[in-house]
Amino acid sequence: MTPAIYDEATANALPRPPRGDWLKRQGKWLIILPPMLFLLVFFLIPFGFALVISFADTAVRVPPFTDILSVSPDWHIHLTLNLGNFKYLFSDEVYGLSYLYSLKTAFFSTVICLGLGYPMAYAIARTSKSTQSILLLIIILPFWTSFLLRVYALEGIIRETGLLNTALLWLGVIDHPLQIMRTTFAVYLGIIYSYLPFMVLPLFATLEKLDHSLLEAAADLGSPPWRAFIEVTLPLSMPGIIAGSMLVFIPAIGEFVIPTLLGGPDNLMIGRVLWDEFFGNRDWPVASAVAIAFLVLLVGPIALYQHYSTKQLEA
Amino acid sequence: MENRISPFLMSMLCIGIAILYIPILVLIGYSFNASALVSVWGGFSTSWYGKLMHNDQILDAAWLSLKIGVVVSTGAVILGTLAAIALVRFKIFRGRLLLTGMVNAPLVMPEIITGITQLLLFVSMLHLLGWPHRGFTTIVIAHIAFCSAYVTVTVQSRLASADRSLEEAAMDLGSGPVRAFIDTTLPSLVPALASSWLLSFTLSLDDLVISSFVSGPGASTLPMVIFSKVKLGVSPDVNALASVMICLVGVCVLFAGYLMRRAERQRVMDAQMAER
Fold first, then answer.
1. Are A72 and A78 in contact (CB under 8 A)?
2. pLDDT tens for residues A190-217?
3. Looking at the 3D structure of chain A, how many domains does it have?
4. Last residue of a domain, one of A79, A105, A132
5. What angle do CA A110, A191, A106 make, to 5 degrees?
6. Which single residue of A35, A88, B218, B263 could bond B79 by disulfide (Cβ 3.0 to 4.6 Å)?
7. Do A145 and B93 touch (CB under 8 A)?
8. What value does the mean pLDDT of chain B take?
9. What residue in A sits closest to B243 (Cα-Cα)?
10. Does residue B84 contact residue B189 with C-beta atoms inside 8 Å?
11. Both A97 and A149 in a single domain?
């Protein structure tokens, strides 16, 4: 071993520096531990509880499920795992169908949001710095406004006697009101309207950093603008596209308020099924199993989002 | 760089902004409608706002939501800032990856899953420990968990771009690390802290799904009351209430944005002064 290398092992072998240095070295835990423990107990561990309860049976008591661990009078510990809840998820097709339906709805909403949000973000990125901050504020403002109230506001436009139908009737475009509420179209409209800012903001963040000399170089070399866009701008803005898409796609799958308020009975998304299982049927073990199965399917998209958003932070 | 924006981009931007704003503006317009029939314009009136003031159910819910909001945003700013300091300043510690994950996950986790899992935790805790009873306490805890994530993300980016030379100078002059941090870096974080407090407040004030799960009997927040009314259809008093909430949140966000911008300008000016 060369003496020049000073690593942790040699540092520990040296006599420890005196005085309250233990506090100095370990003091950082006073900062790390409070948020760590809080999030551990109140965010992460709850998933463990959901997992445990998804293996329980329903019971007529408070809380409405059985314990999976029990100790019999002769000191045997019994572990009772009820796999029936998960089997039920596969046997009753409402869960599979609602999950697929949620995926489909979230996917198409994301694509439409991207189609609308990309040109918006691009336009904002090409304005001057001072205009940019005003436009960004305009985009951010609805993002912080209550989902519930915005969905309610949308209802005011598209319901049978709403502004849209009144205007179209008055203009003579239609002669009887369009049925928009309680349709699939209304659900799409609601999701796009609610999640558009989530798409625009990350896209703007990548497009703003785009080096315009690359586009100029492409133009100088005779590339038409559309080709420069496809070969330069689009690949370089990929992190923003992925981050924005995941920010729309993931919460949209679990959306509850929009299909409930704007959708009809056909728009059975997984969020609504979960809500009904919990508050309607009060079957907590099955609801837990639905939540766990849902979460397992979300791990991929969430990991993808984390990967690209950290990449974007480092850039 | 040329600043010409093609008509296509311009029109997409206008369409997008129109989609975002028209429903809200129409809602606010309808809230001044004198007619009780939501589809007929019966002249300008502020009577629905007056009626709000006498609706005890709404006033109670609003008071509960405001109390929750204040406690939540204070707690979230403290915890979120500690997490941000931990992630920016301590590059290596056991559990860093875990903390990073737990800070980012609430931002994308569907609310309905967070709500269900937290309810199951609270119910089990009450069963095993006799605490907490569902209501104010559980809503506050659940909201702090997701609001602190937003605080951490906001403060983290400020802290990462903060200039450490002043803090190092203070330490060279004999201050302890905590003292040096409080005297030099903390004041520069104040705008970020203030804006993340306001943003936590609006997030807490707006939350419906998580509150519905973790709340108990008798504790209905404002969004819960609105949701139960809205399910029955459009009603003029909800229009008035929604307009009040949207304006309140709008003022909070604009103020937060103003604080951040002023701080940014100050920082740029200081940097220019320092270069001279």
1. yes
2. 999 999 999 999 999 889 888 888 888 8
3. 2
4. A79
5. 40
6. A35
7. no
8. 87
9. A149
10. no
11. yes
